[in-house]
Amino acid sequence: MRKAIIFGVSAALGVALLAPRGARACGRGGGGYPGAPVYALGPLVVGLAATDVVLTLWDTGSMVAGHRNSIGYAVGELMVATPQVLLGLAGLSSSSGSSSFLAGYTLWMAALTWHGIWTLWLHAGEMPAPATPAADDGATPALSAKVEIGPTYVPLGPLAHPGFGLTARF
């Protein structure tokens, strides 16, 4: 019985001493709380970071083992990593100072994006060639357009910015 009383008193003291204190206003008003939309980003960021880590570990393991990932995996990897590369590049181009974390994050996502592209390229040789229509002897050849996008750097003195360039050949 004595142990039960000591445990009860200890639990009551613990609850009383660790209970949250009453809220006090700072007098400035406005709250300053970010609200539910910002709090909803937390689980999204944690889930996305976990997905990035899993993709990186899986890619590393499959490269060491010599395993080729499927086309679906490559498309999923591109869908996850490509928007993050764009966000990282946007953050790097809009920040006034250098952020080593943001640069590392952008390079990490670029590596995942490149692995997805490389996996699709490896599978491109396995896909059957599309059927070509029979060419008429007097027909004009079809026009072919080639559009490419790639990283670029615009040197404008103090206004220099990295970004993306679009080139086309018609």
Folded structure, characterized:
With 170 residues, this protein is mainly alpha-helical. It has a domain at 37-125. It is built from 4 helices and 2 strands. It has helices spanning 2-18, 36-65, 71-94, 100-124; strands spanning 146-154, 161-169. It has a two-stranded antiparallel ribbon. A hairpin with a 6-residue loop joins strand 1 and strand 2.
Question: How would you concisely characterize the structure shown here?
Answer:
The protein is mainly alpha-helical and 170 residues long. It contains 4 helices and 2 strands, in the order ααααββ.
List descriptors:
mainly alpha; two-stranded antiparallel sheet; 170 residues; 56% helix; elongated
Low-confidence stretches: none
Assembly type of the chains comes to single chain
Structure class? mainly alpha
List the helices and strands in order: HHHHEE
Portion of residues within helices: 55-70%
Tell how many strands the DSSP assignment holds.
Answer: 2
Number of helices: 4
Query: In angstroms, what is the radius of gyration?
Result: 28 Å
Query: How far apart are the termini?
Result: 91 Å
Largest sheet descriptor = 2 strands, antiparallel
Shape: elongated
Mean pLDDT: 76
Order of adjacent strands in the largest pleated sheet:
1-2
Strand-residue proportion: 5-15%
